[in-house]
Design goal:
CATH topology: Nucleotidyltransferase, domain 5
CATH class: Alpha Beta
Largest sheet: 5 strands, mixed
Shape: globular
Order of helices and strands: EEEHEHHHEH
Structural class: alpha/beta
């Protein structure tokens, strides 16, 4: 029997100006032709943190358990789920292979909770390569960062 959950495509991106630490994140949700987007700003952050925040916010925006294709230009985010990094980090007490503490544990733990609620498949796209939805979330994250506020 097919999965009765709605299938949503989530496009996510993060942006960070390394010198200032100003960051922005954005997502675009697409379901049956309907589109919903949001973005936000954070001070004192990193690009990886903004990439993860975008994915968290996208999954949190879903009001019911869904089948989600999450499209990201972050290999860090995708590979943590698809290449077993998260499993290894948890087995190692949230330590990397070099025994360093995993960064952004709060966001990784939230993502683990959210991916337990939703059926998520991870898709990577090259950033700044003309993918329309990726370019849109990139623009939204950059605008949120530059204007230091949430948009849309």
């Amino acid at each position: 029997m097919p999965d009765p959950r709605k299938h949503v495509t989530a496009y996510t991106d993060g942006s960070c100006e390394t010198r200032s630490g100003d960051g922005g994140w954005a997502y675009l949700l697409v379901y049956n032709g309907a589109r919903k987007h949001a973005s936000g700003y954070e001070a004192g952050t990193t690009n990886n943190r903004m990439e993860l925040t975008a994915a968290v916010r996208a999954l949190e925006a879903l009001r019911e358990p869904c089948q989600v294709t999450l499209v990201t230009d972050s290999q860090y985010l995708k590979k943590a789920f698809t290449d077993g990094w998260l499993d290894a980090w948890q087995r190692n007490g949230w330590r990397t292979a070099s025994r360093a503490a995993v960064k952004n544990q709060d966001l990784w733990r939230t993502l683990l909770d959210l991916t337990a609620r939703h059926q998520v498949s991870w898709s990577w796209t090259r950033g700044h390569a003309g993918h329309a939805e990726n370019e849109e979330v990139d623009r939204l994250a950059l605008e949120a960062r530059k204007q230091r506020r949430a948009l849309g």
